[in-house]
Every structure is written in C-alpha cells, then in structure tokens.
C-alpha cells in the first residue's frame, strides 16, 4: 500500500456454512492481501455459530482487520467480487452461503445508502461479530485508543452473554 495515500482501518466479518469454509476463508484473505490498496493486519480466531435468522448447518465466522487506501464503496466492490468468486448466491435473505463478507466498520465513516450502511446496522446485535471483533481489539488496545478508528463495543460481560445466548463457540487454534 502506498505511504502517500490516506489509509483507514476497516473491519470485515467473514462467514460461511457451505463447502470447505476454512479453505474459502484462506483464499478470501489471500485475495484481500493481493488487492492494491489493502493490507491485511490480523484475523480473529474462528467461531462456530448456530444460524441466526438463517437455516442450514452451523456457520464459521471470524473478523479481519484491514488497512485500506480505498473508499468504502470500492472496498465493498472488492468484497462482493471475492464472494462471487466463491459462488456466493443470494436466493433469499439469510440463505446458507459459501462466503459472506460484511463490511462492518470503516474508519468511523457513517453512511446510510441503499448499497451500504456503515457501521453495519446489525453489528451490535450479533455475537458472531462482537466476539471476534472484541478479540481483535483486545490484541491491539494501545493502537485502538491512539487511532480512534475503532468501533465502541458493548461490555465484555454483555458480549459473553450474547455469545452464550446465540450459541457462539470459539475454536482453539483456529485461524484458517
């Protein structure tokens, strides 16, 4: 990524419950890392999640932190292209999927457009987002405070309660 371009921290949620999800996540991360203007910082552990407002087998979920020198709509286009490369279909809302890449947060930008809402409108309701996001932010607390580009999360006890209620299980040693 060019040092002369401004960059923003973005958080992207990864999810899937069809096919070899771990391999799909590995490929998605490689594609992100190979995209000009995107640097992959770190990824959370994997979390197994019961479907929320969805059907099918359990999901694997994670969150990745990026530094991006793209705009939020351009990043969304990259994410949707990676989903399509993995045969993501949208036959109905919350259908089972090979790969779901949700732009959760983009450097504090607030948008409310038909194609993109930032921060993600349901981010604070979903333990499968909150637990891995909290994990990432705990890994970099000084940077999180200094940069001011990170979301404010519920208290740890609340995230734990959401996780228990929504059937979230952290998988040990689980980076893809």
TrEMBL record:
It comes from the Bacteria. Keywords: ATP-binding, Folate biosynthesis, Kinase, Nucleotide-binding, Transferase. It is an enzyme of class 2 (transferase). InterPro entries: Hppk (IPR000550), Hppk_sf (IPR035907). Pathway: Cofactor biosynthesis; tetrahydrofolate biosynthesis; 2-amino-4-hydroxy-6-hydroxymethyl-7,8-dihydropteridine diphosphate from 7,8-dihydroneopterin triphosphate: step 4/4. GO terms for biological process: folic acid biosynthetic process; tetrahydrofolate biosynthetic process. One of its GO terms (molecular function) is ATP binding. Residues 93-104 form the 7,8-dihydro-6-hydroxymethylpterin-pyrophosphokinase domain. SUPFAM superfamilies: 6-hydroxymethyl-7,8-dihydropterin pyrophosphokinase, HPPK. Pfam families: HPPK. Its EC number is 2.7.6.3. The keyword Nucleotidyltransferase does not apply. Belongs to the HPPK family. Catalyzes the transfer of pyrophosphate from adenosine triphosphate (ATP) to 6-hydroxymethyl-7,8-dihydropterin, an enzymatic step in folate biosynthesis pathway. This is 2-amino-4-hydroxy-6-hydroxymethyldihydropteridine pyrophosphokinase. It comes from Aquabacterium soli.
């Amino acid at each position: 990524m060019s040092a002369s371009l401004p960059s923003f921290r973005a958080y992207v949620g990864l999810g899937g419950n069809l096919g070899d999800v771990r391999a799909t996540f590995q490929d998605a991360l490689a594609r992100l890392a190979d995209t000009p203007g995107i640097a992959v910082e770190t990824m959370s552990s994997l979390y197994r999640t019961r479907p929320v407002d969805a059907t099918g087998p359990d999901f694997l979920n994670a969150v990745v932190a990026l530094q991006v020198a793209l705009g939020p709509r351009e990043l969304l286009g990259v994410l949707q292209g990676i989903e399509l490369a993995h045969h993501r279909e949208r036959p109905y809302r919350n259908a089972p999927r090979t790969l779901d890449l949700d732009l959760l947060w983009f450097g504090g930008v607030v948008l409310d457009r038909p194609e993109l809402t930032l921060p993600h409108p349901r981010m604070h309701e979903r333990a499968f987002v909150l637990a891995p996001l909290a994990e990432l932010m705990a890994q970099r607390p000084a940077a999180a405070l200094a940069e001011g580009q990170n979301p404010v999360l519920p208290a740890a006890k609340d995230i734990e309660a959401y996780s228990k209620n929504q059937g979230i299980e952290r998988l040990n040693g689980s980076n893809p």
